[in-house]
Amino acid sequence: MKVPAMERGRMQVLYNYLPGAVFSLGDNAGIARSVFVSLEEEDQIDPNYALSLVKKRIEAWLGHEIGGLKFPPLSEENFVIGRPNRVSWDFFPLTFYCAKCGAVQTYMDAQHAIDEFGKDCRKCGPDGRMRQTNMILVHDCGMLDQINVPQSCPRCKQSDQLMMDTKGRRRFKDVDWRCMRCSIPIPSLLTKLCPICAGRPKKEGESNIMKTAVHTANSNFYVHSVTFVNLRKAVPGRVLDAERLHLGLLAWNLSKLDQGIDLGVLLAAQGVDEVALTAEQEKTLATVPAELQHQVREGWLAQAKKAAVEKAPEMASAISDVSGLVTSVGGCVDAKAANHELVEYVAGRLEHGDELSLEAMMKDAQGFGWKSIADGIKAAGERAKAYGFSDVRLLQKFPLATVAYGFTRVTSESSASLRSFRKNRGESRNPMYAVAADTEGVLFQLDPRRVVRWLAARGVPGLPAKSHWDDVRYLRAWFLCRVNPPGVFGVAAGQPGTVDYELPRLLHTLSHVLMKAATMHSGLDASSLKEYMFFRNLSFVVYHNAQAERSLGAMYSLVQQGLDAWLESAMDSLDCIFDPVCSAQHESNCHSCVHSAETSCERFNHLLGRDSLWDMGGKVGFWGTAWNSQA
Q: What's the confidence (pLDDT) of residue 273?
């Protein structure tokens, strides 16, 4: 059999073809298992920064784990990060059966199976073709195996007359083994004990029996990854890892500084002793002849330093102002974490500056004479304000990177063992697979005045004094400094009824209903949309997930021509077909209403609920009617 060549995008490889995955070959050529994926150098990602984020995920897993961890120590000595390139695979599983008579044949090696693939059944001849079984066995320790085939008939002791009786169905419980010679059933299960875990003592809730699954089931292979705003080394590590807020970035975020200021100048505002080139300048510099690069670099740096000096008085005044503001809100609960989010939120956008506000898009449409489009954008802006958003803008180059660092089987949650990917041939380090690219996204930011009033209507304690409820800058500083976002597994930092529970749940639910509604108006598949949360900044980004491929302006068109309808569709998603069960027994969230695809939500569809948006069960919703009429 000749196996056809397959070409896939890098993001497809990242989620579906990494080592350990089972997948269908093209043109009905069978089923295969990924063994190795070669790496290309990825120079757009800082490996130390990426490893530090993975380390946080691993630490969270260990603090939350039941199953375990199968990882070497995290360091550049043990791991290499690169772009996925070429997938090496082998044929799997190696058990075949005749679709007509059910005769079974298991081969000893993949090459033999490939050679025999699609040949005539030894019993039926040309009337029957041997098919590869699509059933496999998986265990939450990470083990992958073939289904259990009986060794022989208990009566005749022969193995050449075994048959798989599927009764014309595809359900596992309907499959029986039979001996065609003796015409008797053979008592044998498809599954078996995990060969790795069989001799180990079981913990409470664990099982050593492998689970039977169709090879295409999502539960066979969950890729664990971390997605982050890719600052491309433009921000010094001491800024990202600072133990206090970068007040220059905060001043920009609170509109105390010129919004068009250069990132390098802004970073030089608070003790950063050098300015840096932007990513675009670094890219341009690479095209300059080598003998001129130093001269060009020094010229650009001199210009940046001059601009920093010129801006120094303005920045000093703004920094003094926001410093007093931070003190007035009571300081930061976790200044290091708040600073990290602030740097991503501000620097990630300033790095390119390719964002369009609704006002700018409306002016562009008017300039081209597109009155209906301009009117539609204006109407969308009014609707967004009515729905509690203070800002909606298009991010044309949202710089993101995704690093896949391991996988689990059976479940994506911590009851399974998290495993690293196996080493490639000739490599001494385990691989982590990364894709870095700019993608389109839409930034939504909530109005803090609406948020604080909604929290008060929900009875949440510990909010700012009512005298500050109309002070936008004070409220933004308060939410940045005083809110604790959920952990990486979507576990809230506070109990229901606290700001650390109610606010992230609101933002997360809003993100999900907007992702779901976007599929109806953008032409993009639900699995190709993803969220990036900025909880402390009352913001989130809905972006096109296929980072390595072009979205052909789908998000731009969605905002320009369909934002009003998009928002209206989100508002109309109050009902769930599984109500009243969903609202009464599942905290008003399930796969039918607000859950998203597993690749779209990094928090495992936790911390969601329609009752955060709509008046349900005696709770006040953010989009509810009673309190909004008084807000």
A: 47
